[in-house]
Design goal:
Elements lengths: L2 E5 L2 E4 L4 E8 L7 E7 L6 E6 L5 E3 L7 E6 L4 E6 L8 E8 L12 E2 L3 E6 L1
Parallel strand pairs: 2-11
Antiparallel strand pairs: 1-3, 3-8, 4-5, 4-9, 5-6, 7-8, 9-10, 9-11
Length: 122
């Protein structure tokens, strides 16, 4: 049974940093594409970062240069390091796994975590 469990969200002031984690079970993070998405109230789920099984990363323009996606194959865990946080980064953050063609399209991922809330105050 595939399971993804996010952790590490919280509240931070603008300009601060957070790291969220996604622990995977039931499959190896080294074998599939993984991504981070976020969803703010009233908005669509937005793909922000992805990493393939070779470690190649892609970022949405909204987070490029501030966020870093990585994975630890030994711990079977995906990470998102977030720096220079802005109030507009406030959202529920989700990790996802699958074999997408369009890596920032949520519908192309098969497995999702329950999400972790990130709140950035000004």
């Amino acid at each position: 049974q595939v399971q993804l469990v996010e952790s590490g969200g919280g509240s931070v002031q603008a300009g601060g940093a957070l790291r969220v984690s996604c622990a995977a079970s039931g499959y190896a993070v080294s074998s599939v594409y993984m991504g981070w998405f976020r969803q703010a109230p009233g908005k669509e789920r937005e793909g922000i970062a992805s990493i393939d099984r070779f470690g190649t990363t892609l970022y949405a323009d909204s987070v490029k240069g501030r966020f870093t996606i990585s994975k630890d194959n030994a711990k079977n865990t995906l990470y998102l390091e977030m720096n220079s946080l802005k109030p507009e980064d406030t959202a529920m953050y989700y990790c996802a796994a699958g074999r997408p063609i369009r890596v920032f399209q949520a519908s192309q991922y098969n497995y999702w975590g329950q999400g972790t809330q990130v709140t950035v105050s000004s």
